[in-house]
Specification:
The protein is α/β, with parallel strands linked by helices. Helix content is 33%, strand content 13%. The protein has two domains: 61-319 and 370-385, Purple Acid Phosphatase, chain A, domain 2 (4-Layer Sandwich); 414-547, Orthogonal Bundle (Flavocytochrome C3, Chain A, domain 2). It is built from 17 helices and 13 strands.
Amino acid sequence: MGHAAVRAQSERISGTSADLERWALVLCVRLMWRRASHLSLLCLILLALGGGCRCSRTPTPSSAERPAPSVRLYLVSGIAGALEPCGCVNDMLGGVSHFAALLKKDASPARLVLGAGPMLFKDPALDAKEKDQDLIKARALGDVLAGIGMSGWAPGANDFAGGAELLSSITKARLTLFAANLPADGFSATRVFEIGGERVGVAGVTARRRGGLAPSGVTEPRAALAAGLHALESQGAHIKVALLSLPRGDALRLAEAVPGFQVALVANPVEQGETNDSPTPPELVRDTLVVQAQNHLQSVAVVDLFVRDGKYTFADATGVEAEERRVSLTTRADDLEAAIAHGASEADRAARKKDLAAVNAELAELAKPRALPEGSAFRYELVPVKEALGSEPKSEAALATYYKAVNEHNREAFKDLLPPPVAPGQSSYVGVEACSTCHQSERDFWNRTPHHAAYATLANQNKQFNLDCVGCHVTGYEEPGGTTVTHVDKLTDVQCEVCHGPGSRHVGSPEDKTLVSIPERTLCAGKCHHPPHVHADWSADAVWSVIVGPGHQRAKPAKTGG
């Protein structure tokens, strides 16, 4: 979503600044991704305040804060088709262009970008309706990853959703697919890179076939990874990195069983839908640093390796044992902020503010950098990928090309797809103009909300036919007598009937109040306003004073009619 357009709409929202601030604190949008491209009144108010997700308090690496490492690793876990997050809230987590901007700011040649887990598809099987769009997205994502300098990844089950041949055609010679336990064309057991004067060896394995979610021919990973380690050592690699597209428990046991890698990157081999992971602290398994970034490119694990005196056993200069505490405190701080926003009493809020101050003080102490030891050492950070990092022009251009291609394809592919017919005796959708005949004050209130221009925000960016977006920017999507991908006449934007239901019978008999729905106080917001698109603690009660307006003042709504 374009933030300039969103801010322009949000300026017209009614409500006091205190209401807005109180609402915004509740709406800490945690761990969003591209699939959630839904315009929402709630998200837009947070954007208008300049709010952002507080999910991570980890600083971005800065060359001014540390000496240059011998090798810097940027490690990504399970992007799973997440090109960018929803644009309705400022500075959300995720976005390949923001990641590209992070890499561009690091001019050091001594870096290596690697991944594990599925990169190209959000689900392990392609949905028939969304297949063409997902294939276009996968190719676009492959182009972007190659363009930002990723060297390769250990594929996950989702990567094979379009078949191994398609996967190979997308990666070609640009990206290495590390799968030592998959003896097939297009996959590599190992590769050695010359990075900053060091020979860095990479080996990877993927999960064995489970319920048809991986290609046939995958062998047991332990023997394959051990053979890969031996091959890297024989090629003179002093720094060895393992890419493990495996369930975390299996990956930790494998790191224990095959010692000799300095760093191991873990990723869930199967991603499903838009659920976002919380941060996972790193672990030391013998001398192997095991890291896992959050899925959907919410964060990237950055490991700096400092080689001293030709020694390749690295001491911990991070304080890995403190990382689990930091993650726990960060989660606690987020929960306290949400509780403060809608505390039961002033005394309750004051107590929570005191707790929050103590938590933030401990987080600040943990964030202080440790001095490097005299010998070889590593430093680790989990860096959030946020809008504040900026955008990278080539990646932005690739995204724009993708959206245009999908829009043009879907316009044609779904031109004959009509909404289901209305059953006899049931209501059809009539649109806001018909409602305004009797409800002009309500219409005037709606005109001041961003919902009244929801569709234009898509059309202005070639997204109005995008299957990831359109459903929450129109009225009656895929409902009888409603809208479809391209058939949206009179029903663009988030209109009255999204919450009040189809109104044709009510228009015909306006005196019969049972013919239109009056939503419960929870509203209809759950259709689009649900985690990870809003904070897990979000509730309509907390934002009620901003939602209500002329014609929307009913404290205890009547039960719905037909």
